[in-house]
Amino acid sequence: MKKKGYVLGLVILLSIFVSGCTSKEEAEQSADKEKRIKKAEKSLAERPIVYMSNNFMGLMDDKGTILMDGEKGLVKEINAFANSTLMEYTTTMSDVLYVNTDSYQIFPENPEFRIPNWAFKNSKYGSYNDPELNKFGIVLNDGTLVKEAKDMPDGISELIFRNARFAHVHFKGDTEGLMNNEGKMLLKGIESFDYLEEEGIDSTVAVVKIDGSYGIVHEKKGLIFSPDEAKKLEITEIFPYAQRSAAIYKTEEGKYGLIDQEGDVIYEEEEPLLFNSISSFSEKGLALARSYGDDLIINEAGEVVSVVADEVEEDISAVDGFLKDNTILVRIGNLHEGKYGLMNEKFELVETFSGKYYRSPFYLGNGLFSVQGQGEDAFPAIINSSEKKIFSETESQTKDIYMFSEFTDSGLSIFRTKNHDEGLVNQKGKILMEAIEGSEIEIEKMQNIYQVSKSLPRKMPTKYYYDKDGELFYQKKEDEQIFLSKGLIMIVKPNGKTVVHDENGYLIKTIEAKTDKGE
């Protein structure tokens, strides 16, 4: 009896400890949220807020006092720009003007200029169109002209900044190119072009695909590694730099090598340095590579930092490269035993998964893995690094789920059923959207929030908005508008009320316009 009571007490103590840890994390998260909200609330006093009343749109301050009466000014529509302090006003006469709401400076002097609403989505740089000249120019997100349309190349039909350094250019003759933020053409006259770096991520170099072949472009120097050079080295693919100092490439023979940010292939003596495989580089600049049967840890210069076999026990082998937390997924024993664990940079086992899995765990991000038990008919589960089940096999079987996508940083994942219907689950294992017949889910990051679109056959998509923590804060309604401005999100209702959130989706306050009717 004493032993049983001791064990029970230990279990209770452990549960209290785990609960305490969770409560501490939640308390820290809550404190951080409150801090962000207070900061946004202070800055709100300096920002105009859009309101709608009697089908006109105007501006008010954070107390509801009218700054610009939309009805008197005949302003039919106001649009805000993501990551920008600019606003676009359209009157009932279809006149359009732009105002920098930080300085209330009207831009531009030429009222014919037009800025597309997606202009600053990926960068503080954007494009504008001058219809009189039928040309595009470059503008900053505060309305400052970087390069006027009259000084830009002719024949551009579309200009989209992929980040703060590179803009993808479409020409009227169905050719494409790449331009830097000063308006200098880096590439031109390409029939088929792809920019392969992640949008919105700043980088001085970029991997591109030119008419089916790969090259590397520098923001100032232009093409520093050409498709012809790639062909000479029998390179069939170059992977994005992803903010690392080296890009990984693949050859016709299935070997992998490295190209530095100067566009130079890394050599070993007189031959390119090649491996059987190279994983993505970690935040600390390390990758798992394989050569002649050995697992190696290399740096971005291709130098071998260590040989895995020299550092670990004989029955441990690396499965994949470094995860975001700088651990490596390893197999313990042979493939048929199905045992796995996590190893840190010092080659110490920090976690061991006790379950037997049909295939190696798939990392979903945020410290979570998708695992599948023995047998081809087994269903996947989601576990954390301590092997706690977040979403069980039974739940997957009940919902007929066969795969989970990677989680966003806010903890959202799309799951797919065996009938290819899609639903949404969060990192706590809660289903946010059921997968029903024909349902399709798309997730798009917008500033620090996520827009989730759910589509059903023969119906318009429904849009949902989730905050930085993965909590739903708004579902789009037909008679309402949502504006993403720099640091703010405004949900404009038709009755003079506007709900204001910060850039993370956290609620700041609801403001009601003090119109004549309201007073």
Which helices and strands appear, and what pairs or packs with what?
Blueprint: H1 2-44, E1 49-53, E2 56-60, E3 66-68, E4 75-80, E5 86-91, E6 96-100, E7 105-107, E8 125-130, E9 135-140, E10 145-147, E11 156-161, E12 166-171, E13 176-180, E14 185-190, E15 193-195, E16 205-210, E17 213-218, E18 222-225, H2 227-232, E19 235-238, E20 246-251, E21 256-260, E22 267-268, E23 271-272, E24 277-278, E25 286-291, E26 294-299, E27 304-307, H3 308-311, E28 316-322, E29 328-332, E30 339-343, E31 349-353, E32 362-365, E33 368-372, E34 380-384, E35 389-391, H4 393-399, E36 401-404, E37 412-417, E38 422-426, E39 431-433, E40 440-446, E41 449-455, E42 462-466, E43 472-475, E44 481-485, E45 488-492, E46 497-502, E47 507-512
Antiparallel strand pairs: 1-2, 2-3, 4-5, 5-6, 6-7, 8-9, 9-10, 11-12, 12-13, 13-14, 15-16, 16-17, 17-18, 19-20, 20-21, 22-23, 24-25, 25-26, 26-27, 28-29, 29-30, 30-31, 32-33, 33-34, 34-35, 36-37, 37-38, 38-39, 40-41, 41-42, 42-43, 44-45, 45-46, 46-47
In the sheet with the most strands, the strands line up as 4-5-6-7
Q: Could you tell me how far the N terminus lies from the C terminus, measured between alpha carbons in angstroms?
A: 74 Å
Rough outline: globular
Count every beta strand, where a strand is a DSSP E run of 2 or more residues: 47
Helix count equals: 4
Give the fraction of residues assigned to helices.
10-25%
Give the amount of beta strand, in percent: 35-45%
Q: Unreliable segments (pLDDT under 50, ≥5 consecutive)?
A: 1-8, 10-14
- Major sheet size, sense and barrel closure: 4 strands, antiparallel
- On the 0-100 scale, what is the average pLDDT? 90
Radius of gyration: 27 Å
Secondary-structure content class: mainly beta
